Fold these 2 entries.
Entry 1:
Amino acid sequence: MLKKSIAFLLLPASLFLSPQALSAACSIADYSADYTISIDCDPLILTEAFANTLTIDADITNTGSVAIDASSYALEDLIINASRTITSSTNYTIKYNNLVYGSILNNGTVNNSLSYAISLTDGARLTTLTNNGTISATNFYGVYANASTITTLSNTGTISAKGYAVNIGVASDITTLINTGTLTTTNNAYYDIINQGTLTNFYNDQGYATSDPVKFFSSLPTNYQIIINSTSDYGQVIFNTVPGTTNFGVHSTSTIDTSATYSSVIDGLTSAKLNNTTTGTVTLSGTSYTWTLTDADSDLVWDLNFASNGPSAADTQTSIQAIKGQLQGNLNSITAGANFANMNTYDCNFFDSKGGCFSFGSRYTDVQSPSMQTNSFVATGGYKIDNHFRIAGFIDQNLNNNTAHNIDIENKGPLVGLIGVWNQNANQLGWQIKVANAYQSKDASIKRTATGTSEAGRGKTDIDSQSYVAELSYNYAATSSLLLRPYLALRYALVKQDGYTETGVDNPLTYNSIRDRSKTALVGIKVKKQLTDKVVARGSVGVEHDLSHKTDNLEASGVSGLTTESFTSNLDKTRPVASIGADYYIDQTQRLSATAFYQELPYASTKSRTLYINYMLGF
């Protein structure tokens, strides 16, 4: 809204010789819009209701009446800017009376040297009074409410007085008083707060840090909540001559230490004044705690202690995130084994007169981030149907799984698969079509480690994987000793981990089932080079790209406030693959082979390396 500068009276030049003449009378030139007073003046008396925001960006100094007088006409919102001072040496600095007002925001200084700094009387109703600066009264009261109402009084600065810093008079009502600053009286005959009306909620952190507990006189607040910032900064209250009872609690913004004792948080109340309730619960940052007040010496001075009631959502979420990374590593490891089986070596294509082939060997796969290693025994068998068609099958049995730190994969449940091949020519030159599949089912034990207040848990699940590949290639002789085979392939893979519930833990988590589904295109070239009559060198290089890759989010329940974890936020869809190897022909029916295979995997740009050594017999 439009903001305007103050209009002020032109004064005779002779007046500028007088210091008092430097301050003109304050006025609001336009009552229909937001307005800013930016020239020092004295005083401001509303002449009609102001339903907008009035900003004081000047000093108002008054010696004869009220500095800001809104007793006859309502003022909606009043803002006093930082480094600005409103002061009066008469009864009132800011006076509201018998009307409905909006808010007062003080970032500067409101001072009174005679009676009341801020006064609400005779039914005045103010929504919020926020003090981020200083409110002070040299003689009487800082904030005075007499037969009036303030919905929320919030103090982050200083309210001081020779009398009461905050005076809640007879028939007055403050719904919520929040004190994270300082309330103080300079006269020991008075108190920081006097409540002769109704105070519903009092929240306080003043006390231990400055050795200055709030001194509270007369009727108790309906609810009192301590604010704890640290073990050396928390609220303390000394109550005196207190009718009524109060409900003690801990404010939700508090930060607590279960190993600490918060001393002298309440002074002057019997257990009956606390409604005979000296223990309760509070939830802070997702963690439930039990608090206990103790008056060990029966001197009405109460200490406060806490005990945790269970894991926090934040700490539990952190422990789940650790599991997510390890589950991604396990998916990578399963993918690496299946990819190697289908695309490279688990084929039996060395035949003799009976058209049969048998092979056995050992596979070692190393997956990085997290580090996982697998040793397997591999057996394959093949049969040549005719000069164009052959079939094969394989079994890959894990001998040892060195899996991620918190995942144990049982060795039982081998990887098995079938292969079917069509060649255009009997010498395997020309076109080739290969189809293959792989399947594996494993039992897994997954451990969740404790982080902060979270609990360690363990559960068992089943992990099934299957993949299907169709490859089209063309083999041609570049020279008499060099064969080149460009290839194009499509692969569909599915890995499923069943849902499970943890056991052996007070607050077990239940996890959903996770399915990892991908459709991948592969393109590359395979090379064979005849080095001697008995030795053939082999190699390949290619790239694979996920046409689609969908993985269910990891979801856990059992602790309130948990969120899902995405598996696809760091997915690498395009990845290189390469291999190098050699065959040694013992004779016409026996062959020794070694193959090293490198591939990058979908999650977190993880790399894997595989070494496979096998013996093959044709018969």
Entry 2:
Amino acid sequence: MHPHSFHKIATALICFLAFALSVQAQTTPGFLASPQVSELAPAFKVLAADVNNDNLADLITYESNSTGSNIVLYLNKGDGTFGAPISIMQANGIADFAIGDFNQDGNLDIAVLVSTGPFNATGTAAVTVLLGNGQGSFGGAQTFQAGSLASSIAAGDFNNDGRMDLAVLSTFAKTVTILTNTGTTFTAGSFTVPTNFDTSNPGFAPDLLTSLIAGDFNGDGKMDLLYQDSCGDSGCPVSEENYYLLTNTGSGFTATHLALASTGAGPLHTADLDGDGRSDFFFAYNGCHTPCTGVVAAYSNGDGTFQSIDAFNGDLTAGGDPADVIAGDFNNDGVMDIAAAVVSGLSVNSGLDIYTGKGGRTGFNNPAHFDSPNGANAAPLRIAAGFVNADGQPDILVAEFAGDFIPYMNISGTANDPCPYPLQGGINFCLPAAGGAVTSPVHFVGSFHAPTQPANRIELWIDGKKQFQVFNDRIDTSVALSVGVHTATLVGVNATGLIVKTADRSFTVQAACPVPKTAMVSICSPASGAGVASPVHITAAAAAPAGRTISAMRIYIDNVAQLTVSSNTITDDITLASGSHLLAVVAWDNTG
């Protein structure tokens, strides 16, 4: 006990211990533009994916102009630059594409959605599947009918048979068509989905269903769908959108109208932004309501509802006007961020904006901006992200409407990364330490550089059973475990469904901060002077002098009370700002 601490109530205070904590600082993102590559035409969708199995991200685009549409491939040279465009499919009416391993040979394939005929419900849709050979070439095209004219396609294993299926969203016909993968072909089945604007306003022109994504939005292990419903009638004074969740029941899909509306929304994207094991979704918007421009992040509550926030509000914050967004840990601090392709906006030029995440659902910081090398002629339109070189940092690819795409190489550094990505494909299992002794709940931390990008998910297996999964390339979660020896494995699943496992890791769970054998307070975590990530996990226990009992304990951070309990043990996770902090845990006995 320190003689200067609370000496007036020394008989009641068991102990006062001071600890200096260095909370890991958030790294400012840094990006450097690499040489541009000329496109065949403006790109309206871009995906970073490793099509030749070299652990480096290539770029696949859907490009279109008045002369036609192409699916185009740009192969990564391995030095931060890309080769000339390679057209792998040309057709009139290309609307969208998706990637996956559709024939289960371990190589990425491409499914191309083509719509033909009148721009109404009498038009038709078909999907052409191009099979990859794992060396950057595609062939063996097979085409499958997919119902009425359609605007969007998503890939996912919707019946949990281990094969990647496809879902197609019709533009006018109010249907979703599921192309079920049998292993040798696809069989089609359609179902009707609800719409908002024409339903609530009889006589309106049909709604336009414009964007479809797949994800496990309730964390039950089944892939759900979520789509964007846009007003297609002149009676809507501005571009307006509503959103519907299609929850996979195992025998069909149940629709839920979400309590979320937008104006001028761009394409939908999905990732587990808060790391809770459920897919979230996010999008950029340029609309006519207040705020006019921004980025929405919608966090799944797991019950068919979402908590939405403005990740960026262009009316209030300096930054570019976002055209498209992508998620990733772009400043290497273990927290998911959002990056945007932006045109000139409030106080900035066109280029790239990074909204670094604060962790959990606490929001995003004001953007870090990087100018396009095209200056006044820049018109960023679409964005993708992946590991372009072998430095273990996710890079960003921006396609501009003028007909160029620009690789932005990540130079943020990994000094503050709690679990750096592997330089080559694989998983880095950072916590708990192999053979270590820990208390429950046990903190698990890992990162995944998918051998064939992009990563689909990371799974946590404990004692032979799957306990948790997260749909991004980082895992940071805590699991309550019984006292004793346990074994954990991290499993990464890449874009083809390939499974990458870490070696089994054994560790021992001790009793949660054992009560001291003498009259004192014992702080089990964090260690004195430790560098830790926020939120800081604090656990302590106290023993009273002979003949007395502990009646209360309290945690102080920087002399401010944080938590009081009526117990002889105390545990809490406390969010702290970067810098050094003073931790004190105080206990009182039953004499008061």
